[in-house]
Amino acid sequence: MIALDDAAWGSPWRQRAVGEKLLLSMGLLATAVTAPPWPMAAPLVAAAAVFATLVLARIPPRVLAIGFAAPLTFIVIGAVGVAVQVGAASADVWWRFGPASISEQSVGNAVNVLGRSVAGTLSVLLLATTTPMADLLGWARRRGLPGPLVEIASLMYRILFVLLDVALAMRAAQVARLGDDPAGKNRLARRWETAANTMGTLLVRAWTRAARLTEGLEARGIDGDLLLLARRTSLSRGFLLGSLGLVGGIWLVVAASQVVS
Predict the structure, then answer these.
(1) How far is CA 82 from CA 2, 40, 74, 205, in A?
(2) What's the CA gap between 194 and 235, in Å, rounded?
(3) Which residues contact 51 (CB under 8 A, 6 or more apart)?
(4) What is the DSSP string of 59-93?
(5) Confidence of residue 94 (pLDDT cuts 50, 70, 90)
(6) What is the mean pLDDT of residues 218-236?
(7) What would the pLDDT profile of 104-147 be if each residue is shown by its tens digit?
């Protein structure tokens, strides 16, 4: 989370209008979700998102890899869950063990889920690595999103970093007090106990921080929106046309591949 946030604040695309980046990212995402993923849509969308992130926006590959690692784990687990059917096996079954089976249709569905998810996630990461949350929330406010929703999202996002700092400090303190039991005696049980204590303390700290935020707002007599200076940038016609051309070109290639097949 910190790596993505730092990359977004330091990105060369930070100076671009949020609407431009949303058009490109959401256009690629919509293509990944709605177009037939194979053989063209998923690879083309993924390649376009990676190219825009690494080459055009000049985001370090390590940052993209860090941001993609956790979603990829869930994507693979989800695809495996789709591939393995539970219940009556279909006629095209490949493997069967008790109520669990794998068929040609289930594998095809899993591959489709994998392709759509990978392409869609890379499209969202294009936006996440080039646009800070503050810019997104400001853009949403100017487009009519209710102020209380924006404030709740902003406070939750900011408090995540505070709690992360607290969690890291607690972890360092526990390690300094031999919380991992390096001698090896009951090491697994010790780790579970340490994790449980950390979670419990962190929940209490989160509640305390939230209460202090509420008290601070009340003490300042704030009963409306927390207005900030808006950072306005003009739209680039070339960028908009390029984004539309890229998304439209992918759709043309997908349509041509469907006609040929």
Answers:
(1) 32, 22, 12, 39
(2) 51
(3) none
(4) --HHHHHHHHHHHHHHHHHHHHHHHEEESSPPTTE
(5) confident
(6) 71
(7) 889 999 999 999 999 999 999 999 999 998 888 888 888 888 87
Q: Per residue in 237-246, pLDDT tens?
A: 999 999 999 9
Contact 32, 95 (CB under 8 A): no
Is 53 strand, coil or helix?
helix
Report the chain's mean pLDDT, rounded to a whole number: 86
Conformation bin of residue 226: beta by default, left when phi > 0, alpha when psi is -120 to 50: beta
Helix (H) or strand (E) holding 25, with range, is: helix 18-34
**Is this prediction's pTM over 0.85?**
no
The answer to whether 47 and 92 are in contact (CB under 8 A) is no
- Residue 236 has φ and ψ, to the nearest 5°, of -100, 115
In terms of residues, how long is the chain? 261
What is the spatial distance between Cα 31 and Cα 44, in angstroms, rounded to a whole number?
Answer: 10
Residues 15, 17, 21: CA angle, nearest 5 degrees: 105
Rounded CA gap, 115 and 180, in Å?
A: 40
Side-chain-facing half-sphere of 254: CA atoms under 13 Å:
19
**Which residues fall within 8 angstroms of residue 93, CB to CB, at 6 or more apart?**
101, 102, 103
What tens digit of pLDDT does each residue of 24-58 get? 999 999 999 999 999 899 999 999 999 999 999 99
Question: Residue with structure tokens 């303390």?
Answer: 201
CB 206 within 8 A of CB 155: no
Amino acid identity for residue 242 in this structure = G
206, two tokens: 């989160």
Q: Are 116 and 109 in contact (CB under 8 A)?
A: no
